[in-house]
Design a protein that fits this description.
- The protein has a 20-stranded antiparallel beta sheet, with helices on both faces.
- With 558 residues, the protein is an alpha+beta fold.
- A hairpin with a 3-residue loop joins strand 6 and strand 7.
């Protein structure tokens, strides 16, 4: 976060509460009941024009759940990071988040309002400039709402800040509410306390004024069409944060319009964006690790993709030491949708035609020979190996497809074998685990690529001879039986459309990947606390799409 934005919160909080810094106010605060804040309550003072909002809990019990994970080294690193953040955030004061802010802050909502155009008077145009810019750059517009649960602690904190050096305060009245302008290091921040229970802050005075208008009765984010239902949030245990986007296409359109470097969205792109009506997401902590769930509300009339759940059987075709996997179902259907959509995008259509033309030179039909037969479950997996052509990179890959059109798949592989022979590659057959496998062999390094059939409907293509052996010979345990895969994917929703799976432990043993992180000791420390990463998605109907992600963490060893 930029320094100018990271420091505006603290003096503004103090400046606002200082307004009530008298004996009478002290007695009022002392006698007031405990306040409460939640996403819905915060959203009631956020203007309805807000593009999105994020609610972050300050509940210590939810955040404390993270302490059950991680190595002692990782926990020390995180504690050091929090200490450094506290020092940087409050470098100009003796303020501590733990002692001074945590006791009274009750949830934080951060809302993104439509960008404000820069006023012409703010533009500094040289006297000899030939042209005055017509498209004015727009600035981001952020509004923060902080719940106040303990008004006495808030007042004590404000009094503490009152004595800080370098903080200038100036009050103004708007709609009967006191707006405090706080200036520190030449940068103003505006704030107001509403109903003695909510602190509203923003770097722009207009945003605070709009919040006051909303408080006085103008339409709020909570009353916006579609917002009231999504403010219920996503069901995750020990919720840390919830994200709300009531109009996804509208948000992208306005943010793009506010970026002078972004191109104007073409009508076709807007149509695609309008497939997604709204999005909500939640981040929480449970016994497996940090879990993220997102739900998109779709327009069934615009959603062209027909979701189909994946059986999940194909995971069993990979060996247990597979450290990365992407699986799904029905590549051919996805390709058909892409081709249909390309009719509305000249550049995409041109690219597809070029790809089709290039493959015709080698006697391959892109639609039929490549994608046409991929109509079942599929998976791509990365498997460690340090033999043959894989010695330097430390791993190879395997593609496995279920198909109902074996004849076309075999014809395609035969064409590819013929093409390899024209490039002076030796194409030979050998038996692995009772299965006939075709290999593309290069001198002194073994097989570069191999393919074969695992059963009547399942074909594989492997990069590297050792990978072909690992996939073809099922003497060793399969991936779906491994403890690592179960820990990362076992709690994800089922049935689903497939998985993205990454075993962090095994990636650290792969030379190519390890070379990117081995030089950073802190990165290694964090990775040692992570078991893996898993994604999946489901679509109960054409109106809903759900995504779930789990960052599986290792429990703390005491």
């Amino acid at each position: 976060m930029p320094e100018s934005k990271s420091k505006f919160l603290i003096p503004a909080v103090g400046a606002t509460v200082v307004v009530a810094g008298s004996i009478a106010a002290y007695m009022y605060f002392k006698g007031s009941p405990r306040g409460s804040s939640d996403a819905l309550g915060s959203a009631k003072v956020v203007p309805s024009t807000a593009l999105m909002a994020t609610y972050i809990t300050t509940d210590s019990q939810a955040w404390a759940k993270l302490q059950q994970f991680g190595t002692p080294e990782a926990q020390k690193l995180m504690a050091k990071g929090l200490e450094n953040f506290n020092q940087q955030m409050f470098s100009d004061s003796n303020v501590s988040y733990e002692k001074d802010i945590k006791p009274w802050a009750d949830g934080v909502m951060i809302a993104v309002l439509p960008p404000n155009p820069v006023k012409p008077a703010q533009l500094k145009v040289p006297s000899g400039a030939p042209n005055v810019p017509t498209n004015l750059q727009q600035e981001s517009n952020i509004l923060i709402v902080v719940g106040i649960k303990d008004k006495l602690s808030a007042l004590n904190f404000a009094n503490k800040l009152k004595s800080q050096k370098g903080v200038k305060l100036q009050e103004s009245d708007y709609q009967g509410q006191k707006i405090v302008e706080t200036t520190q290091n030449g940068k103003p921040t505006y704030s107001v306390v509403l109903n003695d229970s909510q602190l509203v802050l923003a770097p722009e005075k207009q945003a605070v004024e709009k919040a006051i208008d909303t408080f006085k009765g103008q339409s709020s984010f909570a009353s916006k069409e579609g917002a009231s239902s999504i403010l219920k949030g996503v069901d995750v245990k020990n919720s840390l944060a919830q994200i709300y986007v009531p109009d996804y296409a509208g948000m992208i359109q306005q943010l793009t319009a506010g970026n002078p470097q972004a191109k104007q969205l073409p009508p076709q792109t807007l149509t695609q964006l309008k497939q997604i009506k709204s999005v909500i997401a939640g981040v929480g902590v449970d016994d497996a690790g940090v879990r993220v769930k997102a739900i998109a509300n779709l327009d069934p009339q615009l959603n062209k993709f027909q979701y189909q759940s994946s059986p999940g059987n194909i995971v069993g075709q990979f060996p247990a030491d597979t450290f990365a996997l992407i699986s799904g179902n029905g590549i051919s259907r996805g390709w058909e949708v892409l081709v249909e959509q390309s009719k509305d995008y000249p550049e995409m259509k041109q690219a597809l035609e070029q790809a089709r033309g290039q493959l015709k030179f080698v006697n391959l039909d892109l639609d039929k020979d490549i994608f046409g037969w991929m109509n079942g479950e599929f998976a791509f997996g990365a498997i460690p190996s340090n033999q043959g052509v894989l010695a330097n990179v430390g791993f190879g890959g395997a593609l496995v497809f279920d198909t109902s059109d074996r004849k076309t798949a075999e014809a395609t592989l035969t064409k590819l074998d013929t093409l390899a022979k024209t490039q002076q590659i030796n194409v030979a057959n050998r038996n692995i685990g009772g299965k006939d496998v075709t290999e593309w062999q290069i001198p002194r390094q073994g097989a570069l690529l191999a393919h074969g059939w695992l059963d009547q409907d399942t074909v594989f293509i492997a990069l590297g001879g050792p990978i072909a052996e690992a996939v073809s010979d099922h003497k060793n345990p399969s991936l779906d039986t491994s403890d690592a895969f179960k820990a990362v994917t076992g709690s994800l929703q089922k049935p689903n459309g497939g998985y993205f799976y990454l075993d962090i432990d095994k990636t650290k043993t792969v030379p190519l990947i390890n070379s990117f992180v081995s030089s950073n000791a802190d990165t290694i420390t964090i990775l040692n606390s992570i078991r893996g990463l898993g994604f999946t998605a489901i679509s109960p109907d054409k109106s809903t799409s759900e995504l779930e992600m789990l960052l599986a963490l290792k429990p703390t060893v005491k």
